[in-house]
Design brief:
Elements (H helix, E strand, L loop, with lengths): L4 H40 L5 H13 L4 H33 L1
Helix pairs in contact: 1-3, 2-3
């Protein structure tokens, strides 16, 4: 069964309205999605910086004993933080977005 002219007009008006909303609020929609996905990842992984914290604590212990050892552990803490606290949540959000 076909659409009445009134139904076709309403559907077309609705489609235009949705396009306008998406066009006008695209960046906000994307930002909200990314924020929600990253927050979800952080909630699911509350101890994700524990390995980096352990490395930083070890670096502090080595500060007076070995400058190079301290540097290695501090650098490792930075690397682990970047990987676990920034890159993984971003990838988590992107993979979830692609999956859906």
């Amino acid at each position: 069964m076909g659409m009445t002219p009134q139904e076709a007009w309403q559907e077309e008006a609705y489609d235009r309205m949705v396009e306008d909303i998406i066009r006008d609020h695209r960046q906000d929609i994307i930002l909200e999605f990314v924020t929600d996905r990253m927050a979800s990842y952080y909630r699911q992984n509350p101890d994700l910086i524990a390995p980096a914290t352990a490395m930083l604590n070890e670096a502090r212990k080595l500060r007076d004993v070995s400058a190079s050892g301290c540097l290695v552990f501090a650098y490792s803490a930075i690397e682990i933080t970047l990987r676990d606290a920034i890159l993984k949540p971003v990838v988590f959000g992107l993979v979830d977005k692609i999956r859906h």
